[in-house]
Write a structure and sequence with these properties.
single chain; Immunoglobulin-like; 3-stranded antiparallel sheet
């Protein structure tokens, strides 16, 4: 069976803790030579480990998709760390009735950097769902550069 390697796998996380899950995407182009495919994810140790910021997500509001209008997920992220958090964003996962991910989105906090104790707003929009979303989860991430 031929194998295919891709460096185009996309995830918005720099660091994922053991047993932690995060949405990612992988583009596989349809070809007549493959009857099926299987994605195997491997990781490497981060060459420059960074501390993850302690970020709190509050004031979340979800509005479902209506016709051609996308669903929206808006909220606030507060940096509860003692250091400045860089690259702050919200990873939004939407789950169907069976508990499987039906959509995901990444929303960047416009400030991108939050000082200790500071807060920023995020806004995610999703138009395409694999199935109706029953629940959602927001994971805020940010890192120390020092």
């Amino acid at each position: 069976m031929p194998t295919m390697s891709t460096r185009g796998t996309m995830t918005s996380r720099t660091t994922v803790s053991p047993s932690e899950k995060t949405p990612c995407s992988l583009v596989v182009k349809k070809t007549e030579t493959y009857a099926s495919y299987k994605a195997e994810i491997s990781s490497v140790a981060n060459a420059t480990p960074r501390r993850q910021a302690e970020l709190r997500v509050t004031e979340v509001k979800y509005t479902g998709k209506k016709g051609a209008s996308p669903a929206s997920l808006d909220g606030k992220i507060t940096n509860a760390s003692a250091f400045r958090a860089h690259g702050v964003l919200a990873i939004c996962s939407f789950y169907g009735a069976d508990g499987k991910i039906v959509a995901s989105a990444v929303a960047v906090v416009p400030e991108k950097t939050l000082d200790a104790g500071a807060a920023g707003l995020f806004s995610a929009r999703v138009l395409d769902f694999a199935a109706p979303a029953e629940t959602y989860r927001v994971k805020a991430v940010g890192y120390d550069r020092d």
